[in-house]
Amino acid sequence: MTNRIAFQGELGAYGHQACAEARPNMEPWPCPTFEDAIESVRKGDADLGMIAVENSTYGRVADVHQLLPESGLHIVDEAFVRVHVNLLGRPGARLEQIRTALGHAVILPQARGFLRENGIASEVCSDNARAAREVSEGGDDSRAALASELAAEIYGLRVLARHIEDHDRNTTRFIVMAREPDLKRRGKGGMITAFVFRVRNIPAALYKAMGGFATNGVNMTKLESYMVGGHFTATQFYAEIEGHPDDRSVQLALEELDYFTDMVRLLGVFPAAARRYESERR
């Protein structure tokens, strides 16, 4: 056991924040890409991987769902991070001096309104924490970074504008991945089962495949499609449902799904996080 949890990005990234909040007793392990984070878990350099999958403003994180089925890892938990976007400048910089803001392609649209109002151009960077580091190491007071307050602390930057995201509920969802599945737990808020599948090439196959969840009273909380292998006809689906594979209703629904598919692969079973249903309670 390494007691490390891998994430994509540099120290100070929102993935780092997710690790600190969800696994405070583990050492955050920065990795350049999601592939590297997954590989570090697969090789044993880290015990867990914290992988961003979707943002409430931007949508799903590109390409991640295509990585999950072939990762050889299992989803064992989920974490939700309230993403506060901050404009970070060099210690002597002022807001009115800023002409360019660096940030990841996912975070830039989340502060589009603020940047437009202040006449600040956006520049894509591979990671928000790296953007903060580059601003810190550079000598240009007209350049700033969109990043977390944690990044400001790490790289000695000044918060020029705090919480500038366009939406006040801006949240990123992460999944926690491990080498081995954990099917024994039962969460207080229920369980989530995640899987991928491909429907058979017959008329109305998807409609029929989904029927088993409706007739057995299983709530499907997510269904996303994406292409595989560069073929428009090879559509794969990522799905999440409420329940555990040991539940009789889930068993019946998955049996019916299997009849109309040529591939079903379980990706993980994990407790539903309390924050998953926060918006429903408001």
Automatic annotation (TrEMBL):
<dbReference type="InterPro" id="IPR008242">
    <property type="entry name" value="Chor_mutase/pphenate_deHydtase"/>
</dbReference>
<comment type="pathway">
    <text>Amino-acid biosynthesis; L-phenylalanine biosynthesis; phenylpyruvate from prephenate: step 1/1.</text>
</comment>
<keyword id="KW-0584">Phenylalanine biosynthesis</keyword>
<protein>
    <recommendedName>
        <fullName>prephenate dehydratase</fullName>
        <ecNumber>4.2.1.51</ecNumber>
    </recommendedName>
</protein>
<dbReference type="InterPro" id="IPR018528">
    <property type="entry name" value="Preph_deHydtase_CS"/>
</dbReference>
<dbReference type="InterPro" id="IPR002912">
    <property type="entry name" value="ACT_dom"/>
</dbReference>
<dbReference type="InterPro" id="IPR045865">
    <property type="entry name" value="ACT-like_dom_sf"/>
</dbReference>
<dbReference type="InterPro" id="IPR001086">
    <property type="entry name" value="Preph_deHydtase"/>
</dbReference>
<dbReference type="GO" id="GO:0004664">
    <property type="term" value="F:prephenate dehydratase activity"/>
</dbReference>
<dbReference type="Pfam" id="PF00800">
    <property type="entry name" value="PDT"/>
</dbReference>
<feature type="domain" description="Prephenate dehydratase">
    <location>
        <begin position="4"/>
        <end position="179"/>
    </location>
</feature>
<feature type="site" description="Essential for prephenate dehydratase activity">
    <location>
        <position position="172"/>
    </location>
</feature>
<dbReference type="GO" id="GO:0009094">
    <property type="term" value="P:L-phenylalanine biosynthetic process"/>
</dbReference>
<feature type="domain" description="ACT">
    <location>
        <begin position="194"/>
        <end position="271"/>
    </location>
</feature>
<keyword id="KW-0456">Lyase</keyword>
<keyword id="KW-0028">Amino-acid biosynthesis</keyword>
<keyword id="KW-0057">Aromatic amino acid biosynthesis</keyword>
<dbReference type="GO" id="GO:0005737">
    <property type="term" value="C:cytoplasm"/>
</dbReference>
